[in-house]
Amino acid sequence: WRSSSTGGAAISRREIFQRRQEDVSTQSEGTLIALDQEQNARIQLTGRMIQRPMEVLMKVAEGIRNNVPSTPRNLMLVGAPSTGKTQVVMRAAALAGVPNFELVTGRAMYVGESERRTRLQLQLLREQSNCMAILDEVEHLLPLDRAQGNGDSGVSNSLQGLYQTFLADSSLSGRLAMVATSNRPFAISEAMRQRWVFLPAFSALKEDLADILKAMLGQLGVNDVTPDALAKAADEFHQRLASPREMREAFVAARSLAAPTATTDETILLAARSMIGGTDHGSVLLGALSALQ
């Protein structure tokens, strides 16, 4: 405000919004991270398996923006790794114009600090209006089963109690949506499971891989690959259960190793045929089965 007053420069809505998000991150002692809406709005998601989660989350984000009390408040996207769970949440919130925060664990090394920082985190979320909060890989962030021994003198049980109370707070309906992601929903206790609405996320269909690969190459500024090379590379990647992230990394690596005279077609085929599959088939099947259940 002082700079605007002395310099005569107008303060944009975006500047006010950014300052507000930065202040929340500081006040929360790093337990809340303000996510960049403009950057998240540019996230590109391709494939039929992502369409339904995107539709649901767009409705949730719009409900939060418009203060609709019946809007689902606690959602958990479950499925195998690299199915776009986190990206679809961030993009939906950005497109709907809803502030988006990522929750970071409040655990600390001193007695009582974990509980204090978690209370601070949740209190600041309560004070926000019309926002979405992301808990990425929730099984690593929150203690999800009180029956399991944690060897931490009851800290995990205390934190779970704080979160369960927060998730059950009906006064937040229409104002705040908590959206979590998980690769291991089977690790969640029944008491915690009852607090969430589950939304399955599945790996991309083989038929969509060529389009996903084309979109990924476009993000890298590569637009001269032929349809035939795309189809062949997509088939090779499918046999290795490659995720979009792994396909991108394989292409970047192949481009750095390919001969200077290599065409884009040759480079993408080199990436597909030389990639060592990093995704375990069993984990993909288990993630899909858990999502269905």
Overall number of strands: 6
- Tally of separate helices: 14
Structural category is: alpha/beta
Q: What is the H-and-E element order?
A: HHEHHEHEHEHHEHEHHHHH
Largest pleated sheet: 6 strands, mixed
Mean pLDDT: 85
Question: What is the quaternary state of this protein?
Answer: single chain
- Give the C-alpha Rg: 22 Å
Strand order, main sheet: write it out: 1-3-4-5-2-6
Shape: globular
Q: β content, as a range? A: 5-15%
Q: How would you explain this protein's 3D organization?
A:
- 51% of the residues lie in helices and 10% in strands.
- It has helices spanning 2-7, 13-27, 37-41, 51-65, 85-96, 113-127, 138-141, 155-167, 190-193, 209-219, 227-239, 244-257, 264-274, 281-292, and strands at residues 32-34, 74-78, 100-103, 131-135, 176-182, 197-200.
- The protein has a 6-stranded mixed sheet with strand order 1-3-4-5-2-6, with helices on both faces.
- The chain is globular, with a radius of gyration of 22 Å.
Salient structural properties:
six-stranded mixed β-sheet; 293 residues; alpha/beta; 14 helices
Outline:
With 293 residues, the chain is an alpha/beta fold. The chain contains 14 helices and six strands.
Topology of helices and strands:
Layout: H1 2-7, H2 13-27, E1 32-34, H3 37-41, H4 51-65, E2 74-78, H5 85-96, E3 100-103, H6 113-127, E4 131-135, H7 138-141, H8 155-167, E5 176-182, H9 190-193, E6 197-200, H10 209-219, H11 227-239, H12 244-257, H13 264-274, H14 281-292
Parallel strand pairs: 2-5, 2-6, 3-4, 4-5
Antiparallel strand pairs: 1-3
